[in-house]
Design brief:
Jelly Rolls; 22 strands; single chain; five-stranded mixed β-sheet; mainly beta
Length: 315
């Protein structure tokens, strides 16, 4: 694709776009959906085997330049919020599974000692009356075990800029956040920066912090942090040691978890800035597979998930 090195070389793009999947042997390979949607049908699975190109590679970074498949059936977490379609990536400890609309997002896959990782699309039964174009364009980069691009252990996402956005998976879909999620979206601390300020994504983005649709006893427990919480208790995000003040001063009030429809150090609206001056910086996203207490069916606003902006602040 084009030339380089003053015409002495050729720029190569490695693309897999067959409905039969394929094997990735080159760094920077792009996985694309077949051009014809008729090649994609309910019940299909498309698998890609990614071979590790060298022993000093420990991670894959998957950039979802386009990622559109069917998400959960509805916003009520029917059947435990099960995804209709799924995308799975095998890691050193198991599998990562997501679905829905995730264009612009990314994930890291930890090879561990495995010589390859399997990336697989599985298509379920399209609900009656639903029309969707299943589409993906995923850049697969192999990341060395050490260096500035290597994520900390346990980080499914790794943001390396001074400012940016963190979204829960399927935030841009219309069927709510995904069930049974437990992962960390980490932020690489920049030199001479000691704090990160988080805010709910501004308008025109709607319902940018809606993990559960109503306030109930579980949400009260979340705000007071009286009880240890597990994924089976409630949907929440964790920002350990966060406060309403961007300061490293000891003794300021802090919180570790946020839930419901309010992003604020206090259990009251409106949303407010939350600051973390206790590196390493990360946002933990934890969801269960049951709908929260609801006084309105369907809930208003429905549990869309989380969209936060972040900005690193100088010391």
């Amino acid at each position: 694709m084009g030339s380089c090195a003053s015409g002495f070389g050729v720029c190569c793009t490695f693309v897999l776009n067959s409905a039969g999947g394929g094997t990735v042997t080159q760094n920077g390979t792009i996985l694309q959906a077949p051009m014809s949607q008729t090649a994609l049908a309910d019940g299909m699975n498309i698998a890609y085997q990614v071979n590790r190109i060298s022993s000093d590679v420990c991670f894959l970074r998957l950039d979802f330049q386009t990622f559109t498949i069917l998400g959960p059936m509805d916003t009520l977490e029917t059947n435990g919020g099960q995804c209709v379609d799924t995308f799975t990536a095998t890691t050193k400890t198991g599998t990562t599974t997501i679905c829905g609309e995730n264009s612009g997002e990314h994930i890291y896959v930890d090879f561990g000692m495995n010589p390859q990782s399997m990336l697989t699309f599985n298509f379920g039964a399209t609900p009656g009356g639903t029309t969707i174009m299943r589409d993906w364009d995923i850049k697969v980069n192999q990341i060395p075990c050490t260096g500035p691009t290597a994520p900390p252990i346990g980080c499914l996402q790794y943001h390396t800029t001074l400012m940016g956005q963190i979204k829960s998976f399927n935030f841009d879909g219309n069927t709510g956040h995904l069930a049974n999620q437990r992962y960390s979206a980490c932020i690489r601390q920049a030199a001479d920066h000691c704090c990160v300020e988080f805010r709910v994504c501004p308008a025109p983005i709607m319902n940018a912090f809606t993990l559960d649709s109503t306030v109930g006893t579980t949400e009260t427990a979340c705000f007071t942090e009286l009880n240890p919480l597990t994924p089976s208790d409630i949907d929440y995000i964790g920002i350990a040691g966060s406060s309403s003040t961007c300061s490293m001063t000891q003794g300021i009030p802090t919180r570790n978890i946020y839930c419901g429809t309010t992003f604020n150090l206090l259990a009251t609206a409106p949303n407010a800035a939350v600051c973390d001056c206790t590196p390493p910086f990360a946002v933990d996203i934890v969801t269960d597979n049951t709908a929260g207490l609801q006084t309105v069916i369907p809930p208003t606003p429905f549990p869309r998930g989380v969209c936060l902006t972040y900005q690193q602040l100088m010391c």
